[in-house]
Design brief:
Length: 659
């Protein structure tokens, strides 16, 4: 049921007033977008969006993503006005100040109702694709009674202009994610001025060409907005709703110009806007009628939620659904038996193969996982455990053919993880983490469990050459806060890393895996769960301890060979497998010092940049690595050329010891 137009106008004006006043108070922020989209957002939130402000995490709520995250005051206004516990009006008064959940851009970990962190343009919409995937998957598993919701996006010109938009809508169109609707703030303005400065693209034609339904409306006409949203909901394809709006609508002298995009309007213009809008109230004051109209819009959602609760209570799958949405693994989930079987019968396989072997077990035990690859399924070894493809015809599948869309894949994985109920993992070559990096960063910032299966992790991939050989990647990924970068040495460590990644509910993981076969270095059944400390001693010194070799992944067995040679020469050498620097750094000082004692010569061996390894080896240590690009040749030849042999390394260590 819709309110009469005059009351709707005031509801929208409340958003405009809060936005311009909060930006003015903060002396920074973006009033133009919230003021321009206030009418569209009012219709969407009051009449279409299925949500219950009293229970922001209701599993079957519609998901709303403000992809144009700079317009954060739009979502803060909507949450407050429609009755969420936060943000409070004080939070809004403190927009952009330390401690306020109303941060410059929306952060999923600061406010319920903010489904995702947005601000990096394009990624919000791409994450929404992942949310829509998760919705269909859970619908296939649990049925319409339990899972039946939509994904709504507000996106700007910038979101549609970014390259990731092509990947995201291509995937959504192909998968026919018809319950996804993108409301495009078609205001023809970006920061630099009119969109005609930089683009002549026919955006609607592009969306239509990728399988989307496209409809346009006047974004300031409530009935026309309703017409367009009705049409979007009715169409079985994903929909783009082009909402023609005026940026900064309501600011009489600045509206329609980029001056409203990202700067306070100024006292004079705000006062003129109040006159134009007929908003005769003080900053941060919402008249009772407007607030009660807004609060009244929550009733429909509360009712839908309570009916849903009844259906869930009666559903035989309730416990499993609740477990899935909680993100907890089943109590009986364990890879211990598998790991013990490896101890009994060691294998010499590439860690990408070891990952597939672990996934065979994981996917059989865990219905939560949804795998995929950016067109490298056979190389990433990501399709395992008999899981079938997730397609437009069959949403029960658990494997996504992402196509050659690395960034789109990573962003979709974020959306799936944010939605909950599924655990996404996806693969490509490690070197192409660069293509995913902005999304990996958002996985870490948003504290989500996205698992990146990144294979071909060094020059060890051989003949494909330097374009495909990561050099700086592992180390540069280690710099991202809250990201577990794991480089296992063998099949046992690979299984342990999978276990850690799956149990890390609030952080993403990158598994850096080899193309080439590696001997199993862990064969002692009593040595379990060693990777969880990040690094551990694989071999003690035999002779008096002089040298500590710290290696990761495919260089661990080389470190063992170096240690053997050193021992033969009477030099005691221990070997530490550095599986994950982040986890190691979290151990107490005693453990860290015991693993890598400063009293020994500390040597790092990793087939990647030496940059940063001094952190573990000290100023006087030795860093064996590659500080140039690789080359095209068989792996064995490359390891020789770049000095990754015991014959090349041991003399350097002896020189250092004697020097
Ligand atoms: C990836 C990325 N690049 C650049 C920016 C900086 N930026 C923020 S908003 C914006 C302009 C976006 O234009 P539009 O989406 O049309 O927003 P409007 O001006 O209409 O509010 C830019 C370049 C960003 N946030 N993210
Ligand atoms: Mg714009």
């Amino acid at each position: 049921m819709s309110l009469d137009t005059a009351r709707m106008v005031q509801m929208a004006n409340a958003i405009r007033a809060l936005s311009m006043d909060a930006v003015q108070a903060a002396n920074s922020g973006h009033p133009g977008m919230p003021m321009g989209m206030a009418d569209v957002a009012t219709v969407l939130w009051s009449e279409y969006l299925k949500h219950d402000p009293a229970s922001p995490d209701w599993a079957d709520r519609d998901r709303f993503v403000l992809s144009a995250g700079h317009g954060s005051m739009l979502i803060y206004s909507l949450l407050h006005l429609s009755g969420y516990a936060a943000p409070t009006m004080d939070d809004i008064r403190n927009f952009r100040q330390l401690g306020s959940p109303c941060a410059g851009h929306p952060e999923n970990f600061l406010l319920d109702g903010v489904e995702s962190t947005t601000g990096p343009l394009g990624q919000g919409l791409a994450m929404a694709v992942g949310m829509a995937i998760a919705e269909r998957k859970l619908n296939a598993d649990f049925g319409d009674d339990i899972v039946d919701h939509k994904t709504w996006v507000i996106a700007g010109d910038g979101c549609l202009m970014e390259g990731i938009n092509h990947e995201a809508i291509g995937l959504a169109g192909h998968l026919k994610l018809g319950r996804m609707n993108v409301l495009w703030d078609d205001n023809q303005i970006t920061i630099d001025g009119g969109t005609d400065l930089s683009t002549s693209e026919d955006i609607k034609a592009r969306y239509a060409a990728t399988g989307w339904h496209v409809v346009s409306c006047d974004g300031h006409d409530f009935d026309d907005i309703r017409r367009a949203l009705d049409e979007a909901q009715a169409d079985e394809r994903p929909s783009l709703v082009a909402c023609r709006t005026v940026i900064g609508k309501g600011a009489p002298n600045k509206q329609g110009t980029s001056a409203t995009h990202g700067a306070p309007l100024g006292d004079e213009e705000i006062s003129a806007a109040r006159d134009v809008l007929g908003w005769d109230y003080k900053p941060f004051e919402i008249p009772e009628q407007v607030l009660s109209d807004w609060r009244g819009t929550a009733d429909a959602g509360a009712k839908a939620h309570s009916e849903w609760n009844d259906r869930l209570s009666a559903d035989s799958q309730r416990a499993e659904f609740e477990r899935r949405m909680s993100g907890d693994l089943p109590a009986k989930f364990s890879l211990d038996n598998y790991i013990q079987s490896l101890m009994k019968e060691p294998v010499k396989v590439a860690t990408r193969k070891a990952s597939e072997m672990a996934l065979d077990k994981i996917n059989a035990m865990l219905p939560d996982t949804m795998g995929g690859s950016a067109d490298l399924t056979g190389s990433n070894n990501t399709k395992a455990g008999g899981i079938g493809p997730f397609t437009a015809d069959d949403y029960s599948g658990r494997y996504i053919y992402y196509g050659i869309r690395e960034f789109g894949m990573a962003a979709a994985m974020n959306g799936m993880a944010l939605h909950g109920g599924v655990i996404p993992y996806g693969g490509t070559f490690l070197v192409f983490t660069d293509y995913c990096r902005a999304a990996i960063r958002l996985s870490a910032l948003q504290q989500v469990r996205a698992i990146y299966v990144m294979t071909h992790d060094s020059i060890g991939l051989g003949e494909d050459g330097p374009t495909h050989q990561p050099v700086e990647h592992v180390q540069s990924l280690r710099m991202i806060p809250n990201l577990l970068v794991m480089r296992p040495a063998d099949a046992v460590e690979t299984a342990e890393c999978w276990d850690i990644a799956l149990r890390s509910k609030d952080r993403p993981a990158v598994l850096a895996l080899s193309r080439q076969n590696l001997p199993q270095v862990r064969n002692h059944p009593e040595e379990t769960d060693m990777s969880s400390k990040g690094a551990y001693r694989l071999k003690k010194a035999g002779n008096a301890h002089k040298v500590t070799l710290v290696a990761s992944g495919s260089e661990v067995h080389l470190a063992l060979a170096c240690a053997d040679e050193l021992e033969k020469q009477g030099v005691g050498a221990s070997v530490v497998s550095m599986v994950c620097t982040q986890l190691f750094d979290e151990q107490d000082e005693a453990y860290r010092k015991d693993m890598i004692p400063a009293s020994s010569l500390r040597v790092s061996i990793e087939a990647g940049t030496t940059f940063g390894w001094e952190r573990y080896t000290g100023e006087n240590g030795l860093n064996i690595g590659i500080d140039s690009f690789g080359a095209s040749a068989p792996a064995g030849d490359l390891f020789k050329k770049f000095g990754f042999t015991a014959d090349a390394i041991v003399p350097q260590i002896m020189n250092k010891l004697n020097g």
